Amino acid sequence: MISYFTHFFVIYFVVSSTDAIETSLPNCCPSGWSMIPKGTKCLYFSSKQLSWFDAARYCKKFDAQLASVHSDRESETIKRLTPNELLNTGIWLGGVTTNPAYGAKQDWYWFDLTPFNYDNFGNDEPSNSKTSCTDRGLPDTSQSCLQIMNIRNFGMNWDDECCSEKRPFICEKRPSLYDCTGGK
């Protein structure tokens, strides 16, 4: 009987100690990525000009996805971390809609399937300017993808855009417990 409790205690102590060690290790982002406050996401700002779908595929190569935004704090962090050369252009986020319509915000979702529980659309957005895509010679029939941009100098807000338009983009991934060699 004593032997059983001794083994149980030793096993419990080892498992508990291992858990404590793992949870005390720092979460890190890969080199070139930035961690947002609270350490829940790593962001990568790419200046490559890709369509929304190609940007999503590019992020996937790094076990990441186009960024989703769930709070004012995350939105402000993205604005603060955006490189200066990208401030006056649209930048793809991971939002997409299945029902593009003027002013319709209820049918948007995040490509990573997290809840679309926050929005930062600019005034009169989403606009779904249907002729905007075809007038530019793009194959899209509507503006169904989400970008963040400096809209009419009102600050960095969200805007719907034709998915085949080529834009820089933001990838996100979870920080790693073990990838702390040169990341931020």
TrEMBL record:
Q: Where is the signal peptide?
A: 1-20
Q: Where is the C-type lectin domain?
A: 38-172
Keywords of the record: Disulfide bond, Signal
Q: Which domain of life is it from?
A: Eukaryota
Q: Which SUPFAM superfamilies match?
A: C-type lectin-like (SSF56436)
Residues folding into a coiled coil are none
Pfam families for the chain: Lectin_C
Question: This protein is called what?
Answer: C-type lectin domain-containing protein
UniProt organism field? Plectus sambesii
Q: What is the lineage of its organism?
A: Eukaryota, Metazoa, Ecdysozoa, Nematoda, Chromadorea
